[in-house]
Amino acid sequence: MAGTNVPLKCNCGAFEALLQNVSPRTGSHIHCHCQDCQTAARVLGAEDQLLPRAGSDIFHTTPAHLTLTKGQEHLACLRLSPRGLMRWYAGCCNTPMFATMAHTKLAFMGVWVPSMAPPAETKLAKVIGKVIAVVRTQDAPMGSPSLKEYGFNRAGFHVLARHVSALLQGRSRQTPLFDAEGAPIVTPRVLTKEERLAAQK
Ligand SMILES: [Zn+2]
Ligand SMILES: [Zn+2]
Fold first, then answer.
1. Ligand 2 centre from 108 Cα, in Å?
2. Which ligand is nearest to the CA of 34?
3. What residues does each domain of the chain span?
4. Residue (of 134, 168, 171) closest to 151 by Cα position
5. 75 CA to middle of ligand 1, Å?
6. Top-level CATH class of 4-199?
C-alpha cells in the first residue's frame, strides 16, 4: 500500500512543501526532548509548537520524499554550532520545517510534525503512525505529564535501515535541500557560542 502525500506548510502559508509516500513504513514518529531541539525552538520563537515538557514532535524519513512547492525563497537554515544539525525553517514566520545533516552522505531528514497540513479527512496520527520513541527525556523541564524514555536504539536503527534502502534504490543523495555538489541551497546561520548559551535555559 502506498503512503499518503502530506502537504507541509509554515504558519503564515508563504512556504509550502510536499512530503510524498508518508506512512509508518517510510518514516518513524518520534518525540525528542533534547536540549538542542528546545534551544532551536526558542531561537525561532516556536516554543508554542512544542509538546508538553518541551518535546519536539518529529517524523524521521529520507529527503528523497520531499519536494519544495511554494515560497522557496523563504527557506532559511539555523545551526546551533558549527557542527550542529542543519535546522531548516521558513524565515517568513520562523516555522521549524526540517532537520538534516550538513552533508548528503546519510539519507536522513526529520520533519516538524506541526508543519504537516493533511487534507481534513486524513487522520495524521494514522498516516505517521504511533510514536516509536520518546528520547532525551533527561533534558525535559520538570512538570507533567510524566515521561517514559524508550526507543532510542530503535529510532537509530530505523534511520540506518532507511538509509541503506535509499542507497540500494540509488536515492540516498536525492534531496531538494542540497545542490548536485552536495552544498546546501541556503547558507545556514550558525549561532555563536554566546548566542547559543543565551538561548539555553
Ligand atoms: Zn511563513
Ligand atoms: Zn532533539
1. 14
2. 2
3. 4-199
4. 134
5. 9
6. mainly beta
CA 147-152-164 angle, to 5 degrees, is: 150
State residue 178's pLDDT score: 98
Q: Is 138 exposed, middle or buried (0-12, 13-18, 19+ CB in 10 A)?
A: exposed
Q: Inform me whether the pLDDT recorded for 24 exceeds 80.
A: yes
Q: What is the mean pLDDT of the chain?
A: 96
E strand or H helix that includes residue 95:
strand 95-100
72 alpha carbon to ligand 2 midpoint, in Å?
A: 25
Q: How far is the CA of 195 from the centre of ligand 1 (A)?
A: 23
The predicted pLDDT at position 1 comes to: 58
Collect residues with CB below 5 Å from ion ligand 1. Answer: 10, 12, 14, 90, 92-93
Residue 120 has a pLDDT of: 87
**pLDDT exceeds cutoff 80 at 201:** no
